[in-house]
Amino acid sequence: MQGIPFYKYQGAGNDFIMVDQRDNQWINREDRELVEKLCHRRFGIGADGLILLQNHPGFDFEMIYFNADGREGSMCGNGGRCTVAFARQLGVIGDRCHFLAVDGPHDANINNPEWVELKMIDVTQVEEGSNFYYLNTGSPHYIAFVDNVDQIDVVQEGRAVRYNARFRAEGTNVNFTQLTANGLKVATYERGVEDETLACGTGVTAAALAYHLKRGGPKGAFEVPIQVKGGDMAIRFEATAQGFSDVWLCGPAKMVFAGEIA
């Protein structure tokens, strides 16, 4: 029996199992138990999620993303950047691409072998609460600003928000965000993984946009450096009267190893 070839990628410590399905349908959307097993860090390969790269008319490729719990997920920004790096390694694309994800079309650039910039969706609605911001950057995110991220129990406090009465059914990602001398430091509890991850692409994007509103929200083009536990990232965006457009998630994306699933 032929095994399933796979590759392991990580984007700022956010790690993914990548499967090329252009010629073979190895894994289907219904294979929840298989995906969950492969993502398990003791009994499988270990990852925050699994991604299928498939053909799609009119696009360089289609990205299908599953959370570590085996369920098909909403948009994963770091997963998208890793998929772009994977597509380039396979020879599907060059330094630019146009691909399809669950939240619609995306463009991406590879400016050096291990730095991928991914265009995210526009954001026109942001809820501002007494001590939080809530917005969707391809996935829903709750942003709480704190004095010191390192003193937060990300799992315990993130889980309390994710499973509260408002968010329990659909879930939300929870981002604890600290202002630094030149940008932000962010720690994220991810739904679907149900744990802290070393980085979250849609999460740091949401944190940067919330930070811009917190500091008064002037119009124009901005870039916010982001520090996560898995490395350094950056968010570029245009703030307009309608919200945020031309939003780019920028950061490292690297292959870790390749193998075969028996």
TrEMBL record:
The pathway that the record names for this protein is: Amino-acid biosynthesis; L-lysine biosynthesis via DAP pathway; DL-2,6-diaminopimelate from LL-2,6-diaminopimelate: step 1/1
Tell where it localizes.
Answer: Cytoplasm
Q: Which Gene3D superfamilies match?
A: Diaminopimelate Epimerase, Chain A, domain 1 (3.10.310.10)
- Catalytic machinery residues: C76 (proton donor), C200 (proton acceptor)
**Cellular component per GO, a single term:** cytosol
GO terms, biological process: lysine biosynthetic process via diaminopimelate
Report a single Gene Ontology molecular function.
diaminopimelate epimerase activity
Residues the entry annotates as binding substrate: N14, N67, G77, N78, N173, E190, R191, G201, T202
Kindly state which reaction or reactions the protein catalyses. Answer: (2S,6S)-2,6-diaminopimelate = meso-2,6-diaminopimelate
InterPro entries to which the protein is assigned, alphabetical: DAP_epimerase_DapF
A Pfam family? DAP_epimerase
Q: Where is this site: Could be important to modulate the pK values of the two catalytic cysteine residues?
A: H141, E190
Q: Which UniProt keywords apply?
A: Amino-acid biosynthesis, Cytoplasm, Isomerase, Lysine biosynthesis
Query: What protein family does this chain belong to?
Result: Belongs to the diaminopimelate epimerase family.
What does the protein in this record do?
Answer: Catalyzes the stereoinversion of LL-2,6-diaminopimelate (L,L-DAP) to meso-diaminopimelate (meso-DAP), a precursor of L-lysine and an essential component of the bacterial peptidoglycan.
Subunit details: Homodimer.
What's the name of the protein?
A: Diaminopimelate epimerase
Top-down, what is the taxonomic lineage of the species of origin?
Bacteria, Pseudomonadati, Bacteroidota, Saprospiria, Saprospirales
